[in-house]
Design goal:
The protein is built from 3 helices and 3 strands, in the order ααβαββ. With 71 residues, it is of the alpha+beta class.
């Protein structure tokens, strides 16, 4: 998910998709200059049963991969 600053709106709006057990993995790009958005994103994914498994840096943003726990 790379939506230039509205990641949390998209994630919250897609909550039903993220809660579906069929969804096993999600890659999200969070801006480096917004640590609060990253914190909120990680908390949301944890509440929905995901865990952060990897991140990588690219330019002004970081990519984060979340897998459903047990996947």
């Amino acid at each position: 998910i790379d939506v230039d600053g509205i990641e949390m709106k998209i994630l919250k709006g897609g909550r039903n998709v993220l809660q579906n057990p069929v969804t096993k993995s999600v890659l999200v790009e969070f801006p480096k200059d917004n640590p609060e958005m990253l914190k909120s994103g990680v908390e949301l994914f944890e509440k929905l049963g995901f865990e952060l498994i990897k991140y990588s840096t690219r330019g002004n943003d970081d990519n984060y991969i979340f897998n459903r726990k047990g996947f």
